[in-house]
Every structure is written in C-alpha cells, then in structure tokens.
Automatic annotation (TrEMBL):
Name of protein: Trafficking protein particle complex subunit
Domain of life of the source: Eukaryota
Annotated GO biological process: Golgi vesicle transport; macroautophagy
Places the protein is found: Endoplasmic reticulum; Golgi apparatus, cis-Golgi network
Signal peptide (from-to): none
Matches recorded under Gene3D superfamilies: Trafficking protein particle complex subunit 3
Gene Ontology terms: cellular component: endoplasmic reticulum; Golgi apparatus; TRAPP complex
Similarity comment: family membership: Belongs to the TRAPP small subunits family. BET3 subfamily.
Amino acid sequence: ASSAKRNGEQCYARAPKISAELFTLTYGSIVTQLLADYDTVDEVNTQLDQMGYNIGVRLIDEFLAQANITKCSSLKQTAEMIAKVGFKMFLGITANVGKWSADENEFSLILDENPLTEFVDLPENYSGLLYSNMLCGVIRGALEMTQMKVTCSFISDALRPGDDTTEIRVYFKEYLSEAIPINDE
C-alpha cells in the first residue's frame, strides 16, 4: 500500500494540472445540463455512469502509461492501485480501501474528500441524484479494459444529510477473456 501511495504521489507530481475550481465548476455544469435535458434523476444517474464509463475506457491508457505499473496480481492490489494511484493521479486525492467481503470479491473505496462536490449543496428535490456517479462509470470502464467486469454503486455520499464520507462499493463479477478481432491472425 505504501508503494502504491508513493507511485500515486509521483504520478500526480508529473501530471499537468488544471485549476481545481475550474474542474469542479465544469463538472457541476455538466450535471446541471443533464438535469435540464432529462426528465428524471434516475436518467441523469444513468447518463453520468455512462459518461464515466466512456471516460474510463480511454483513461486507463493514460493511467497505465504514466503509473508505470505491472499487471496487478489480485483484486486487493487492483483496489490499492485505484485508491492510491488512480484517484491521486486524476483527482489529486487518495481513497481508503476497506470493508472487504468474506470472499474478497467486494470492497469499498472511501473518500474523505471529493473534489467533484466542492461548492455543491443538493436541493431536497434532487435527493436521489448520485452527483458523483461518473466516478462509478470511470472505475467500471477502466477495469473492463483490463479484463475485469465489475459493478459500482454509491453506499454513502457526503452530499446527503447524515453521510460524513463518500463510499463507493465495487463488486467484482468476472474476468473477461481477451477478444480477438475477426480475421486477426
């Protein structure tokens, strides 16, 4: 875990930076536009997840190139890489990994801070909005590109009354076999 954290710090130091406020406000604008474009909060949640998935599918290449890591040997190692390297590299924060299931196929990523939610107060009529749901999609898309099928969901969100932290639950489903393109020799 300490080498993953060190690797995350090194990747973060090398990565180009943008203003945290600009990033947060841009994300907020995306969510606001989706709320205007779709009829229900559930549709917005689905769109945020799908947008995140599309980002994750592309982001994994940058992650693997910059992080200079070898293939993870276990789900635990993968979880640490996401929490300590991925979150640090792209969001400037680290997450804590915990709450493993007995079969070690489920874990939680606990964020003490979430840069996507700076300056955000959710009105009561949007209490079902998973404001940061794009993060679940990013994790899902990135891991799928590394041949791991997972699902993700929010267990708690610091934007909701009564929740102090943001917790993302990751459920490992299966390893995917690499698809060989048709007519590829």
